[in-house]
């Protein structure tokens, strides 16, 4: 059974050109003019782009005394409707601390529900011999990324010695460490201070997590990664301080990647102040929304290439769950949604405004992360042999974002009322049409697949700082003790 996507303009991270795409089963068989097939999909007047990859979601994740309410079923349906065909979700060890059990648990939860493809990042929330051994098993199970929380003291946070040990293990295994970079000790102290002063509402959340704590942790993680001889991926970069650290590291030749979120690019700290409690609490996430200056820095990073990926950190709680924090902002479950709206909001506020080219849009929503996560060109590309994860992106199909029309099961949307100028006409996941605009699509739960991602030893070989640090420097025995040959 073949399908031809007809008369569209293919947009890749490299270039745009007019051609048809012949899909045979799950993959792209041919790209060219006037292709014939069993079925036709009309792309006249539309762009044909690689399906979006959202590398940062927390579906059904137990967190802060509750569980994220967006399910694997609703989350992947929302993704398909918004043009995203692969999610990379955070797999969190349970009370037994086992990574392998956590992976099996994530498979058990996700497999019957997902309607688009998925991968996992594994969270490392402590350090011991079992974790050391299980990291290798996790890699064999198709996970090449390990996430470290530098915040959430007393819960998920790792100390520097633990992070360094894990980063060195990543280097050995050809895996990429990720960090949630906020100084958890300072955040805890500020939370205590503001609560003691009676500043207990959601605005206290923003005050307790200033950009400086993110900048400090980003710098620290970069230095630790450099010492361990491993690349680094910084999730939800929200401010200039963190972006600046990444820019500086890259300029020195370090492989450090930065991921801003669509929320931080388009929503600012005004969402927390002089608002009713529910409104502000629904927008509590970490890091918090920042001032416009920080947003400007993030856009500049995407334009210049110092930041490479736009994600969502989709971690969605209902209003009822947010109200656990009525006793004080530190108890408001942290997280917002965005998986359904990432592409449309980025297109409208990025491409329509001239900040990004359509090719850059494809790069930051799909291609770059496919390369960073080592699933390129199976994902993130429109080339022969790639998975047919394709979006027919209609730049003239505008809509207003509303709760009533969303596929997410959450009772609000942080982008509610946003006018977006574009959306998918069709979304294909490995050749299946999982979303067709105006046709009441309901993708099949369970049709999505787990996509294993192999390790990448070659990128690590070039980084040998740890070897350098552990090899004593030879100092010349000069009478004046002047080192020679350095
Ligand atoms: N931040 C959030 O807002 N939610 C999930 C985890 C995180 O780091
Ligand atoms: Zn500490
Ligand atoms: Zn985080
Ligand atoms: Zn997250």
UniProtKB/TrEMBL annotation:
Molecular function per GO: dihydropyrimidinase activity; metal ion binding
Keywords annotated in UniProt: Hydrolase, Metal-binding, Zinc
Transmembrane segments: none
Modified-residue entries (N6-carboxylysine), positions: 147
Gene3D superfamilies named in the record: Metal-dependent hydrolases, Urease, subunit C, domain 1
EC number: 3.5.2.2
InterPro entries (UniProt xref): Amidohydro-rel, Hydantoinase/dihydroPyrase, Metal-dep_hydrolase_composite, Metal_Hydrolase, Metallo-dep_Hydrolases_sf
Gene Ontology terms describing biological process: nucleobase-containing small molecule metabolic process; pyrimidine-containing compound metabolic process
Domain annotation Amidohydrolase-related: ranges: 47-434
Cofactors required: Zn(2+)
One of the record's GO cellular component terms: cytosol
PTM (free text): Carbamylation allows a single lysine to coordinate two divalent metal cations.
Classification via SUPFAM superfamilies: Composite domain of metallo-dependent hydrolases (SSF51338), Metallo-dependent hydrolases (SSF51556)
CDD domains: D-HYD
Enzyme class (EC, first level): hydrolase
Top-level taxon of the source organism: Bacteria
Family: Belongs to the metallo-dependent hydrolases superfamily. Hydantoinase/dihydropyrimidinase family.
Purpose: Catalyzes the hydrolysis of dihydropyrimidines and of the structurally related DL-5-mono-substituted hydantoins, to produce N-carbamoyl-D-amino acids.
Quaternary structure annotation from Swiss-Prot or TrEMBL: Homotetramer.
The protein, known as: D-hydantoinase/dihydropyrimidinase
Source organism of the structure: Paroceanicella profunda
Source taxonomy: Bacteria, Pseudomonadati, Pseudomonadota, Alphaproteobacteria, Rhodobacterales
Name of encoding gene: hydA
